[in-house]
What does this fold into?
Amino acid sequence: MGKADLRLQDLFWRKSLQEASKKEMNDKPIQVLSIEDDYDYAYLLQEMLAATWGAPFDLEHADRLSTGQEWLIKGGFDLVLLDLSLPDSWGFDSFDKVRNLAPNVPIIVLSGIGDKKLANRAMREGARGYLIKGKTDADLLAQTIRRAITL
It folds into this structure.
C-alpha cells in the first residue's frame, strides 16, 4: 500500500469519525442515574462522563437506594449505575429492587471488588456491565454505557 493509499484511508476514517461524532452530538443526552453513596466517586463519575466525546450524558446522583427508587418511579432514565454497597440496601438485593422497579432500564454494577464470581453473577442476573471502581477510566465508562443501552 502506497503513501497515497494510506492518506486516502486516513482521510476516509477521519471523515467517518467526524460524521459519527456529529450524529452523536445531535442525539439527545443519555440520561444516567447513579445510585452511589460515595460522594467523591459520584463526582468522579460526573467528571469522567463530562470528559468523553460523543452524545452528552446527563448524570443524576442518588446516595441511597430509596432515593434512587423515587427517581426511577418518575422515569426518564436510560441507564442506572448501581453500587451494591449502599446504606439502605446491600448486595444483590439492591440489584433486584432496581431491576423489578424498572425492568427495561439497563443496569451497570459498580463495585470496589474485582471478584470474577461477583461479576459473573451480576451478568447472569441481567446486569449490562460490571465496572470496578478505581480501575475504570472515562472511555471505558462511556463505552460500557453506550453498549448497555444499545443491547
Observations:
- The CA atoms of residues 128 and 151 lie 8 Å apart.
- The domain at 27-150 is CATH 3.40.50.2300 (Rossmann fold).
- The radius of gyration is 18 Å.
- The chain has six helices and seven strands.
